[in-house]
Amino acid sequence: MLSPATETELSEIVAGAKGPLRVVGGGTRPIGRPVAGEVLTVAALSGIELYEPGALTIVARAGTPLAEVEAALAAEGQRLPFEPMDHRALLGTGGEPTIGGVVAANVAGPRRIQAGAARDSLIGVRFVDGSGTIVKNGGRVMKNVTGYDLVKLMAGSWGTLGVLSEVAFKVLPAPEAAASLSLEGLSPLQAVEAMATALGSPFEVSGAAHLPGEGRTMLRIEGFVASVAYRAGRLSELMAPFGAVTVEEDGARVAEIWRGIRDVSGFAGRAGDVWRISVTPSDGPEIAARTGGEAMFDWGGGLIWALVPEGTDLRARLGAFAGHATLIRASEETRARIAPFQPEPAPLAKLSRGLREKFDPRGVLNPGLMGA
Fold first, then answer.
1. How many whole angstroms from its chain centre is CA 21?
2. I want to staple 236 with a disulfide (CB 3.0 to 4.6 A). Which of 129, 210, 245, 359 is the partner?
3. pLDDT > 70: what percent of the chain?
4. What CATH number did the domain enclosing 330 receive?
């Protein structure tokens, strides 16, 4: 295993690579096609480089454990806005999620409907491309010499364009209070209608999920204590036509509920493959029914998590639909047979190939992981 301790060492390793490299951070998210290559981990590239609470900015080396970043922010009453998911329970993995891994996978949780994904808070990156060149963009170095918005490009690239060495984020104050509202017994169609109503209200809903297996529809609001209390009351009135509303205002309990939704813990440790489907919320109930498995909804119905029998080609089962499906959890054999990431239309696939040829001309960085 290759484990550089400095950016210079990382550059030298990539430049001298004689074959494929399997790039990992904490190794907690083995998503995508299996990569045959020497393991290159950035876990030793660790540490917070700069944290300015007053400027709402944090810069950390890519291998820094996510928990370390979140602890530093919490000590100052701040947080990462996008609520990054922890995949370990769902995927049955160990290790420590890293902040670079969060960026590489463009991770987000239930708050994405309000705050966006990791790329929307990312303001700077440093990385080593496939030729071993150190590249920097955004953050404290605002000059973009390549003509690309590399900050956005690196988020969700899964280590196929470059190996991240440093990332910079804008952060936000953590709320004083939170409340979780629940309704029981709604059908998926009724739940999506209720969530759309809540999200379209002026009450600043920061989470909207439906758990059919538990028969619950969940809404979350966050903010100042008095504001949360007021909005919880008003939102309860708005939701009354959909049924009786239960309000949970204990902060620890609210955090526990939404951590379970964030991490899809209802599917953790259970047999079957797990797919992540992005759709228009109004299409969610029909798409969920077509999966033929168990489904849960997040992002107001715009994100479906589906648990299906092992080896299921869910895209073939769903047929054509407006959205995309990603295979998140499956055996290596299934991930080799079924493209984990949604195949791209020809024009977009051509653009993606061009980017890979530009940033990794030798094809050494996670080759084939995203299906090309």
1. 23
2. 245
3. 97
4. 3.30.70
